[in-house]
Amino acid sequence: MSTTLPTGAKIINGVKTFIPLENNPTVHTHLATALSIQTLAFHDIFTLDPPPTDVPRPINALIFLAAAPIYARARSALQSTLPKYTTPKETDPIWIPQTIGHACGLMAFLHCVLNLDAGAHLARGSELEKLRQELVSLAPEDRARVVYEALFLEEAHMDAARGGSSSVPGPEEHNGFHFLGFVKGKEGRVWELNGGMPGPLERGVLGDGEDLVSEAGLRLTVGDFLEAAREVEGGGYGGLGVSLVGLVGV
Question: Which intervals hold domain UCH catalytic (predicted)?
Fold first, then answer.
């Protein structure tokens, strides 16, 4: 049983469900433009060993996509050991639980743009900047409710999701991939921000001259997933198993 909303999203089994995003710079740029973000550029990262030299630096936020078997191998055991995150600290990034179906791409995008450089790339007075101000003081479940109810996010996501290079699936179709975001925050702390986990995950600390696609940065961010990709038949960077987009201020 489903109900189609004016944006093309659907209510499926009582849950608002979107068309999945593609992980490519064109789609993310489309989404950023719709949300009045004009000081970020998005770059495909095609090589990791050695770290890329053909993209602008520093890259302090990453949008990462992994096929479901790779994601499960890298995170299923860890997820079951993490406590539920209920009380954000002032030094923590803004983390939002995902409650919208097939919206993990939007969640990864939001986790990156809301936290990169403390939200400095959001246009002052824009709907997204006002949303960030509202989210900061809220508990995680209230953040999820605000994002779930934000029509401007739904409209922007659904418009961007139709602009990918592959055929556009329906909201009711199975989604075999999962997105997450990585951000280098205060004091060089590296955060994995995934709305499907119990909370934000601190991965380690980088020095002032190290970004997320430095050797140390890649180890702290996608290292677990690349190891899982090598263990999953047919997985591996450069194939269909994972993809990575870096965010750079302009």
Answer: 17-249
